[in-house]
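quick q for whoever's on today - can somebody do inverse folding on this one?? i tried earlier but teh output was garbage lol. tokens:
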């Protein structure tokens, strides 16, 4: 197999080590699939059980409420279709800053994202989903095989011989069973719940992925976004609860399986995407990894005070257009970024900016280093001459009731409040 020399829809050549580094990701996913198939054929450990234990005397449900094939469609196929549809079609349709076509002068319907960026986002999205499911399946099956905990319907699967009694004081083993061997073998795989772990792995991953795309933690408080992100979690919970209703698992099995799935989904998402607490990233995938090179420290990648600073707060352009025109001398104060340090000390210049001088030769080849994060809904910081803070209505400005205003805080006070001979610390606090 020949290693590709460049990305699709890009003129930039890829070093072989970059391609090799991502081959490892697919190798891990394939290894998880092979490991699961092997563990599924291994006879699990058979714990001793008691014929008088009422917690394992539930009837065997022939028809499950959510068979495994349905669970895979819910936790695997649905997220996959959503990732493909959003990445290739929806992403960029609602952008406020769509680029214009050079020939016709009309704005592009598809938004600012290039095809190579969409394909990169698609690659990372699918990789993360497969990694979440692969980890959940192989870890769950390994624990099932090693533990061998009886299911709640074990006695019905076992079909003990007539007049059977516990061989040991209060305990029996599988030698007294006359039921179907396949059903009996599966009867000792109760902990943890595979339906729960796989459902939460895939649906927690897609919840995080969707939350990043909608940047739900941008301090705007749009409840519809939170509700949309919670829908996959509700679906995962319903799948997990169905296992208790079918008497396939004990509640403890479902709870621990769900926790395992949450961890797998979170870990897989963070391998390829930034955390939700950084909404300025807009859920864009990490750039192509510089495999084999030393990571850059926080001091070497910070752009404090630069107009390319990616840690600027997200803003609402509509609110700023509706704000009244206030003279610069009447500004109440700058925004929080004036007197707070950069909230993102790890902002990378490779991650957030697009080299303008390389646009002509297609130098920007990663979806996370394009001009999307700098092009719209980002407040550009420029502390050069003539720069003023965004204009806000002073009557709506929040004045701290606990900390006095100091001269070195970088806060501009209107002249009527800071007259000659009147110290700043004596100013009355604005009533809330």
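ok took a stab at it. sequence:
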């Amino acid at each position: 197999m020949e290693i590709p020399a460049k990305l699709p829809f890009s003129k930039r050549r890829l070093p072989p080590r970059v391609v090799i580094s991502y081959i490892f990701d697919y190798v891990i996913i394939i290894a998880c699939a092979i490991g699961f198939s092997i563990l599924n054929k291994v006879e699990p450990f058979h714990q001793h059980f008691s014929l008088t234990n009422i917690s394992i005397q539930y009837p065997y449900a022939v028809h499950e409420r959510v068979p495994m094939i349905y669970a895979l469609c819910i936790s695997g196929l649905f997220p996959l279709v959503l990732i493909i549809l959003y990445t290739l079609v929806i992403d960029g349709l609602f952008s406020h800053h769509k680029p214009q076509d050079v020939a016709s002068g009309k704005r592009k319907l598809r938004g600012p994202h290039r095809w190579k960026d969409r394909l990169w986002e698609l690659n990372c999205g699918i990789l993360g989903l497969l990694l979440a499911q692969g980890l959940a399946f192989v870890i769950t099956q390994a624990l099932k095989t090693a533990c061998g905990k009886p299911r709640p319907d074990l006695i019905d699967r076992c079909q003990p011989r007539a007049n059977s009694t516990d061989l040991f004081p209060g305990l029996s083993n599988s030698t007294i069973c006359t039921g179907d061997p396949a059903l009996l073998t599966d009867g000792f795989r109760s902990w943890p719940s595979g339906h729960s772990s796989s459902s939460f792995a895939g649906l927690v991953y897609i919840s995080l992925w969707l939350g990043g795309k909608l940047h739900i933690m941008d301090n705007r408080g749009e409840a519809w976004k939170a509700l949309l992100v919670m829908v996959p979690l509700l679906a995962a919970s319903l799948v997990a609860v169905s296992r208790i209703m079918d008497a396939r698992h004990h509640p403890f099995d479902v709870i621990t399986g769900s926790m395992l799935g949450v961890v797998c989904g979170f870990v897989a998402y963070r391998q390829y995407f930034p955390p939700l607490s950084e909404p300025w990233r807009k859920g864009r995938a990490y750039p192509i990894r510089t495999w084999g090179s030393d990571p850059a420290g926080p001091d070497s990648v910070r752009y404090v005070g630069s107009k390319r600073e990616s840690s600027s707060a997200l803003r609402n352009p509509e609110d700023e257009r509706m704000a009244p025109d206030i003279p610069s001398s009447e500004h109440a104060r700058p925004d929080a970024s004036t007197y707070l340090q950069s909230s993102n000390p790890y902002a990378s210049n490779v991650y957030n900016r697009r080299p303008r001088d390389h646009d002509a030769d297609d130098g920007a080849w990663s979806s996370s280093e394009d001009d999307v994060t700098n092009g719209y809904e980002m407040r550009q910081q420029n502390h050069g001459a003539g720069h003023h803070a965004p204009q806000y209505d002073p009557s709506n400005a929040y004045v701290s009731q606990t900390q006095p205003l100091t001269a070195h805080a970088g806060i501009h006070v209107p002249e009527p409040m800071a007259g000659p001979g009147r110290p700043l610390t004596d100013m009355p606090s604005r009533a809330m």
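fwiw Residues 298-314, 326-411, 424-432 have pLDDT under 50 and may be disordered. also The longest helix spans residues 115-147. so keep that in mind when u check it
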